[in-house]
Each structure stands twice: as structure tokens, then as C-alpha cells.
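Consortium newsletter contribution from the modelling node. Members have asked for a concrete example of what our holo predictions look like. Here is one, prepared for the heme C complex that several groups have been discussing at recent meetings.
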Amino acid sequence: MRSPLLSSATLLLGLLLQPNITLAEQTGNIDNDIRLLINAHKLTGNPAQGVNIPSIHSPKAQLGMKLFYSRTLGGDQSTACVSCHHPLLGGGDGLSLPIGVGSANPNIIGPNRRMKNNGDITVPRNAPTTFNVALWKKHMFHDGRVKKLDEYSIMTPDVALDTADALSGENLVQAQARFPVTSMEEMRGSFLNGEMNQTLRRSLSARLHKNWVKSFRIAFNDNHSSVADLITEQNISEAIADYERSQLFVNNAWRAYVEGDKQAISESAKRGAYLFFAPKSKGGANCASCHSSDFFTDEQFYNAAIPPIGKGKHKHDGDTDMDDQGCYLVTKKPEDKYRFRTPSLLNVEVTGPWGHNGAYSSLEAVTKHMLNPIKAAKKYTKAHVEQAGIDFSKTRRNTKTLLKSKIDVKPMRGATEQHVKDLVEFMKTLTDPCVKSRECLSPWIPPANSNDPDGNMLHGLRKRGQRL
Ligand code: HEC
Ligand code: HEC
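And here is the predicted structure:
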């Protein structure tokens, strides 16, 4: 008979030699192991601590909502912010690449939206969610071209790198909200082609001078200013930003777990949480080295080797390379090539397709990619995308170029399908149930009979005749 001491020593040795063994399996108590990681990462469960969130019921956010849904701010009056950022579509549009001006039917929002005559899609990047935008502290956009410089100043594309834009407004979200109207593909079309951004914004504001006075007087509690001083591009962007910033959706099962409810998430999600937060030396995947904090992002930029699809953001006018170089386009630093901002993973279940260009239509597939980016990029095919009208003609060639650059997301050795499943289960605990409920989201969707100053608000159809 073998000595029990010897066999348990062999067992222990076996455990230590197994490459994927996790600390959790060693101690047998996964809750304790996750607790250590929660403490090490200084998580509280609440990413909104200390952030001032406007109420959707405030008069300013109410005005912002109307503006967000109104096509009057679109150069050719076909497109509104909501065309690409609808609350019922996870604060995005459910498309890999958005369609702004030139849509076949502007009333259709979401996966059935098409270009006129089934033309190719021209917007180069995926529309990020507006949910929880109030929580960003450093940058807006995939490439950070709106950036907080210090407590009082914000850089925007209207000014030189790392200089303050005096007209940026009060916060990052307001600074961002002044730009979609200037994009030809998103909202502008050929309206005032060639004019300066500020000239364009003034002209769009003037459109509201006729019918929106009452709404602005209420929102800004201002009965005295002249119409020209009341309805300005600054007040417009301020109101829109308050509407967006009121979209706080952070009450999820993971938070309940962090706050002490051990039953709040499943065993698979717990294994996923362990993988997500643990370092590679402890059998983890170390996702939290970038997706850090209660907001699940460090707000920095990395090359994750997401395959290039679609037209890509142009390096200059007439650029046909379709090779989107991300953050490099902003900073011109060689090391920033192909880097994009780490996305928050809150509500990630509903914010697909995923990646800065929507290269992946399933959360499993993008998770698999993140576990081994180079391998996934090499094997990538357009079957990962559900949307028609996307140009893949240079995807292979540009993937080769991309893979010659330094990839910042390192693979997890020995990752299995079970790891993918557990990570996905974990990420689904970051969904606030409100974002899946029309009733719960209804304060952010104007009712069909709401006062519509110039009859130009979009209510959104899934298909012709079918309410979104
Ligand atoms: C045609 C689709 C489209 C329309 C219309 C549109 N957006 Fe976007 N939005 C995008 C895309 C694409 C991006 C990302 C662009 C990039 O990062 O280069 C974006 C980025 C954003 C972001 C940044 C989010 C983040 O995480 O950094 C916010 C906020 C936003 N849009 C709000 C708005 C507002 C407000 C309007 C209306 C004034 C608007 N959008 C109109 C497609 C659209
Ligand atoms: C080195 C930093 C880094 C690490 C480590 C990392 N990520 Fe990411 N992640 C990013 C960046 C940057 C992006 C966006 C890349 C892009 O769009 O080009 C991203 C994108 C994602 C997305 C898509 C989200 C969206 O909204 O499009 C998911 C999901 C994701 N990561 C999950 C994970 C998981 C799971 C792990 C661990 C296995 C992980 N990430 C590890 C930086 C990182």
C-alpha cells in the first residue's frame, strides 16, 4: 500500500506542475480568492463615486433628449444623434459600422439600416455606447482626440495637439457633442461644405431660433436673453451632454457580488472573474491590467490587433489605404500606431458588435480574440460580421501590416473554450438589467406624442412600419 503522505505530496506536485491551474482550485474557495483580487484591484463595485450625474428629469436633460432625437441638427436633416446611439440598442446602433447620411430609410435605426442603393458604408468606426459616458475622466472617442488636459481645459479636433479648446464646454461629453454635426458621413452631408466648424455650428443653431425658444427658456431658466444668446451651439451641446450624462447604468450583479452578496453571480461567472483579474503567474488572463477599476478601463490606448475592416479612418484626404492607425492619427507618435482606447466593459453584453470597427458580432469571438490576438487576427474572416455593405477588400493585406506592429495584448497560454465561456459569463454580470428593459429605459426615449418643436424628431423603426 502506498503511503498517504506520499500520494498527497504527488497530488500537490501534480497540481503545481499543471500550467492552467488556478489559485482558486488550489484553495478550494473561489469567493476568497476573488475577494483578494477585489482588494488588490481596490474595487468598490461603484464606478460613479464622486461623479455628478444629472437627472434625466431635469429640464436641461429633457431639452437635450429632444435635440438628441432631432434631425434638425443634421446638415441635410436626415440624421440625428439617435440614428447611431439609441437606448434600446445598447446606446449604439447594433451595427458593426454606422450609417449616417445617405441611409436608404432614415427612420430605420439598428441592424436593418442600409445605405441608399446598397452602397458601401463610409463611416470608419463603430459607434460606441453613450451609456455611462459621464464616467470617462480622460478621453472621448476610440482614438482619444477629445482629451482632458487639466481640471479646466479640454483638447478637441478643432485645435492643435495638447492645446486647450476655449469652446470645448464644461466636460468631455459636451466637448464631444460639438463634433458629430461636423462629420460629413455622420450628420453633415455636403451642407456648408468647406466652411469652418464654428460657422457650421452657428448656422445649425440658427435653425432652432424659430421653434425652440420656449424649450430653451425652460431648460436654461432664462426669460431675458435674446434668442441669439439663448440658442447657441454652446447651450445646445450643454443640453445634449446632460441628456447623455444622465444615462448611468451601473447596477449589475457583479456590483452586488463585490458588495458582499456571494449568490449574486454563477459559479462559471466566478471562474471568469478569477481569470479576468488574476495575473498570468496565478493562472489568470490579466484582463484587468487594462480593463481596470470599477469602470473596467484604464482609459489608455493599446494595440489589440483587431482586424481592419471597412474604409478605416483616413490619414489624409484621398487616402484609400483603409488602414486605420488609431491613436497615431492624433499624436503622430510611432508607438501609437493601431492603438485604440480600452473600452469600458460595463453593459458590454448589449453594446456589440465589438472592437473599434465592429469586427466581431459575437461576444464569444471577441473574447477569444483577446485571449490570443495574433492567432485570432490571422484566422479572421468576414464571417464574423453580420452587416452587409462593409468593404473587406483590404482586410487581408492590412492585417499583415498590422501584425508587423507591436501588439500590446499578450496571449494567455493554454486558453480553452471553457475559459472563453467563463469570461463571457463574467462579463454578462456587468449588465445593468435596466438596459434590457424598454420600460426601464423609457425616460430616455421621448414618447411618440411628445412636443416636437419642428416636427423633425426621429422615433425609430426596426423595419418599415415596425416600432423600435
Ligand atoms: C452616423 C452615426 C453617428 C451619429 C449620427 C452620431 N454618432 Fe456619436 N459616434 C459615432 C461613431 C462612429 C463614434 C466613434 C468615432 C471615433 O471614435 O472615431 C461616435 C462617438 C460618440 C461618442 C464618444 C463615446 C466614447 O466612448 O468616447 C459620443 C458621446 C457620441 N458619439 C455622441 C453623439 C452625439 C451627441 C451625436 C449627435 C450630436 C452623435 N454621437 C451622432 C457615430 C455616430
Ligand atoms: C493590454 C491591454 C488589454 C488587455 C490585457 C485586454 N484588453 Fe480587452 N481591449 C483592450 C483594447 C485597447 C480594446 C479595444 C481594441 C480595439 O477596438 O481596437 C479591447 C477590447 C475588448 C473588448 C471589446 C469591447 C468593445 O466594446 O468593443 C472586449 C470584450 C475585451 N476587450 C475583453 C477583454 C478580455 C476578456 C481580456 C482578457 C482575456 C482583455 N480584454 C484583455 C485592451 C486590453
